[in-house]
Specification:
- The chain is of the alpha+beta class.
- The protein folds into three domains: 147 residues, 2-Layer Sandwich (Nucleotidyltransferase, domain 5), CATH 3.30.420.40; 93 residues, Nucleotidyltransferase, domain 5, CATH 3.30.420.40; 71 residues, Actin, Chain A, domain 4 (Alpha-Beta Complex).
- It contains twelve helices and 18 strands.
- The chain has a five-stranded mixed sheet with strand order 3-2-1-9-10, with helices on both faces. The protein has a five-stranded mixed sheet with strand order 13-12-11-17-18, sandwiched between helices.
- A hairpin with a 4-residue loop joins strand 11 and strand 12.
- The longest helix has 17 residues.
- The radius of gyration is 21 Å and the shape is flat.
- 46% of the residues are buried.
- The mean pLDDT is 88.
Length: 334
């Protein structure tokens, strides 16, 4: 069936790409991974299939994540990945779709242009950008149009975006390159140092999801993982405890707490008063690390709430912002 071009919202995450189609909701959620033949340059797999190849490919095939720390690190692969996802969800359109993509709040003009160019070359008729904390706040159901302070902490795979929002814009904001990926790296480093065992990114992520914590648990949990013994070079199975994860994740979690603290220090008193009443809202997959909400609440003295469907908040907010595209287009016309 031939269809007219639709409006698409994309949460172009470092770890996951989530696509929202106007009128349909979230239609795609896949890892931001591309597997490419190094010799021919052909894309062999994208998304779930490519993620299974991470760390398991022969020399001529490279499975990579083309986005790092919230920005494009490999332009060609990002364009190929976007083209694949757009073609996968758009079907046969009469016109190319208008696309809104969310970006971290502190990206440079060069990084913005890279996102716009990649999406345009991937088949977008027109590209719009929205800052992640704004999209996250809309997706979390906060009314950001009023002259009242709302604080959002969006922890993704590559960046943590923190913003105080009022009257539809960010009054104070920051973006730090400490998020889910940094948690995984901290776990790999800790296991290597303490157990003399090398584990991969995926194993570290499983540890983070299953027993990871940044606030003391009532009961110590354990999980068996397999890695490579650095002394013998042979496979080895070890038991890791949640108390060890608490130690491993202390540094990155405290950097996030410090960033929240710094934003609060720069917040105008009236808005700070609003935040004290309403609390801090957390979104993004990274905020689900056990105890992170309790840690921020303890260090700031402000109530912290994890938004419903926190992983999808940015995509949902980007999708809701699609309703304003006609107004944006009218304002663009001379």
């Amino acid at each position: 069936m031939l269809m007219f071009g639709q409006d698409i919202g994309i949460d172009l995450g470092t770890a996951t790409v989530i696509v929202y189609v106007k009128g349909k909701g979230i239609v795609l959620r896949e890892p931001s991974v591309v597997a490419v033949d190094n010799i021919t340059g052909d894309v062999l797999a994208v998304g779930h299939e490519a993620r299974r190849m991470l760390g398991r490919t022969p020399g001529n095939i490279i499975a990579t994540r083309p986005l790092r720390d919230g920005v494009i690190s490999n332009y060609t692969n990002t364009e190929k990945m976007l083209k694949y996802f757009i073609n996968k969800i758009r079907g046969r359109f009469l016109f190319a779709p208008r696309i809104m993509i969310c970006i971290p709040s502190q990206v440079t003009e060069v990084e913005k242009k890279a996102v716009i160019d990649a999406a345009s070359n991937a088949g977008a008729r027109r590209v719009y950008l929205i800052e992640e904390p704004i999209a996250a706040a809309i997706g979390a159901g906060l009314d950001i149009s009023k002259p009242s302070g709302n604080m959002i902490v969006d922890i993704g795979g590559g960046t943590t975006d923190i913003a105080v929002i009022s009257l539809g814009g960010a009054v104070v904001s920051t973006s730090i390159k400490i998020a889910g990926d940094r948690f995984d790296e901290a776990i790999v480093k800790y296991i290597k140092k303490k157990h003399n065992v090398m584990i991969g990114e995926r194993t570290a992520e499983e540890l983070k999801l299953n027993i990871g914590c940044v606030y003391p648990k009532f009961q110590d949990m354990e999980m068996d993982v397999r890695g490579r013994d650095l002394i013998t070079g042979l496979p080895k199975t070890i038991t890791v405890y949640s108390s060890e994860m608490l130690e491993a994740l202390e540094e990155p979690s405290m950097l996030i707490v410090d960033a929240v603290h710094n934003v609060l220090e720069k917040t105008p008193p009236e808005l700070a008063s609003d935040i004290s009443d309403k609390g801090i809202y957390m979104t993004g997959g990274g905020c689900l690390v056990d105890g992170l909400d309790k840690l921020i609440q303890e260090k700031t003295g402000i109530n912290v709430m994890i938004a419903e469907d926190s992983i999808s908040c940015v995509a949902i907010g980007t999708g809701k912002a699609l309703d304003n595209l006609d107004n944006l287009d009218r304002n663009r016309r001379p």
